[in-house]
Design goal:
The chain is an all-alpha fold. It has one domain.
Length: about 55
């Protein structure tokens, strides 16, 4: 596994932990805002991984 893939997996794990913390600690609209931001960051990280792995 490349170092970039390791960093990607670590980033996704951190996004998941932050999302879970938001789910259990926040209420209402603020919970959904944080979850949408975490999802957007995960997609952005995935796109960056795909761009960097192209030959």
């Amino acid at each position: 596994m490349t170092p970039l893939r390791k960093r990607f997996r670590f980033a996704l794990a951190i996004y998941a932990v932050l999302g879970a913390a938001a789910w259990f600690t926040l209420d209402g609209d603020s919970r959904w805002v944080v979850l949408v931001v975490m999802a957007a960051l995960a997609v952005k990280s995935w796109v960056a991984l795909l761009r960097d792995e192209q030959p």
